[in-house]
Amino acid sequence: MKKTVYRISLVLTLILLSLALFACTPGGSPGDDSDTRMVVDQAGRSVELPQRVERVVTTYQPATYLVFALGADEKLVGVDLASPGLEFFRLLNPAIAQVPGVGSKKGLNLEEIAAAAPDVVILFPGHDSQSLAEQLEAQGIPSVIIKPESPELLQEAILLVGDVLGEGEQAEALVSYYEEKLAYIRDRVGEIPEEERPRVYLAGPGGVLSTCSGDLYQHYLIEEAGGKNVAEELSGGWNNVSLEQVIAWNPDVIVSLQYSEQGEPEGIMADANLAATRAVQKKRVYRFPSNLGPWDYPEPRSILGVLWLAQKLYPDLFADLDLQQETDLFHEQFFGCTFTELGGRLDGNA
Is this model's pTM higher than 0.90 or not? Predict the structure, then answer.
């Protein structure tokens, strides 16, 4: 009898000890009430964050667009300098006009960021992002670095920021939409041989003589739409190029951004220096549409830019695509109202 009682006591003691050890193991208990959690950002950094992030600072426009698309704009306590004045953001949330601007990729005001008391700062990709993260960490401010410079990395960034902000479900929906539309385009252009794909020259922010390298998200946007970026061999970011180089490339299509300097298609086609290019001769010069912000930034709305460009490159293959309807549906799903209700227009050569 004593042996039986002893065995029962020993078993109970071992069970209680196991439970105690399990409860003390980090992450081991479903009831873990730790105030912080760990995430790994796109620079491979392990970052400790509060369980609930309620105050966020963004440092460049693509990150601000992403926070809005995730439905977390009310958490913004600091943004890049340009965002408070952008019509798209003001239409969705007028309070953005009073959110402090903390800088841009050209430089950040760390004192302004500290004054905003954020739970997290979303940092842009760049050679100085690691240094900025360290400076913020020295002030007790956590940050995550995003690097959304390809379709895969953009999807990763969406999921990362969705996790950080507690908007995982919305992030999953954004990624599903993005993947679905890429698959739709790839299904139609995937069998076109490389040598038959239109050669595209993208006129960048600086106008006709600036363009994107093969390292930028805009390069992948062209590729996903079924085109070939004539400047893919360039490296770095936006590159200035010579007129002679553009002529030598002799693109089939010239596309300018909404924010390109002197990017109007009429002006490009009237430029005598470009008259001999196939794009001008065939009148295949276009400008990205939308009066409510760019569609080429590495943020969720860029998928609309891919759809638009695919239709421009292959009008017969995408004759059934109603871009206005698709744009309205996208904005209604992820921003709560249609593009048309916001006063959106697909302008010019769109």
Answer: no
Cα separation, 59 vs 213, whole angstroms: 23
Nearest residue to 72 via CA among 176, 164, 178: 164
What is the third-level CATH fold of 36-166?
Rossmann fold (3.40.50)
CB 178 within 8 A of CB 155: yes
pLDDT tens digits, one per residue of 238-292: 999 999 999 999 999 999 999 998 889 999 999 999 999 999 999 999 999 999 9
Percent of the chain with pLDDT over 90: 86
Q: Give the separation between CA 136 and CA 132, rounded to whole angstroms.
A: 6
Beta pairing, strands 107-108 & 103-104: antiparallel
Phi/psi at 84 (5° precision)? -60, -20
User: Residue 208: which residues within 8 A CB-CB, separation 6 or more?
Assistant: 246, 254, 256, 260, 262, 263, 268, 271, 274
The top-level CATH class assigned to 173-335 is: alpha beta
Residue 235, burial from CB neighbour count under 10 angstroms (0-12, 13-18, 19+): exposed
For residues 67 and 282, give the distance between their C-alpha atoms in angstroms, rounded to a whole number: 40
Residues forming CATH 3.40.50.1980 domain(s) in the chain: 36-166, 173-335
- 278: tokens are 């196939």
Distance CA 51, CA 37 (A): 6
Say whether 179 sits in a helix, a strand or coil: helix
